[in-house]
Amino acid sequence: MIIPRSIRKIKERMNHKKGPHAHLFKPYDGDEVVSLDCETTSLNIKEGEILSIGAVKIKGRKVMTSERLDIKLKPPKSLTGDSIKIHKIRAADLIDGVDMDEALEQVLAFVGNRPILGYYVNYDVRMLEKYLRPRYGFGLPGKAIELSHVYHDIIKWRYVGGDIDLRFDTISKQLDIPMLERHTALGDAITVALMYVRLKYGQPPASR
């Protein structure tokens, strides 16, 4: 039986409210958001393995590039030529990568109970939770913010009756935000963070 994520989170909060990770399940009342991205061997969550994880904190109107996470994992056996063509990450690039256990500890410490921002954020969250739940018994507790939904909700009034292009490259162009190190976890996380701040605090994008 598939348990809805909202119900699962309530159950996990009850199970861990007195454990060593209880702080992760307290309601977040700060003004920070964590932009997070994973590079993986496949877009199929069941088959894919994480190659790298990038994250950066957003505090109010500022992208805190000094407070970032840039993790490379040890190369998995599923790292093949087909996946390398997409993310350009080779086994040689991951030779100094860390074990998954260490990576997850870093992610939990960095993210805490803050909201998690991303482009197709549910994919990244589900990929991480595939490893988190067997080890800790819970997933990422913070709420997820989908960048494309934020973008859509802000500009939809300009396109009444029309389709809105939600592709990453299009959103970047519309917002005049350069794409930094495309298809690297940290580069995409920073780019998404800049887009989010532009949408929340800048001028609405012009119709193009």
From TrEMBL:
GO terms for cellular component: cytosol. It comes from the Bacteria. One of its GO terms (biological process) is DNA metabolic process. Residues 32-205 form the Exonuclease domain. Keywords: Exonuclease, Hydrolase, Nuclease. Pfam families: RNase_T. SMART domains: EXOIII. One of its GO terms (molecular function) is nucleic acid binding. CDD domains: DEDDh. Transmembrane segments: none annotated. This is 3'-5' exonuclease.
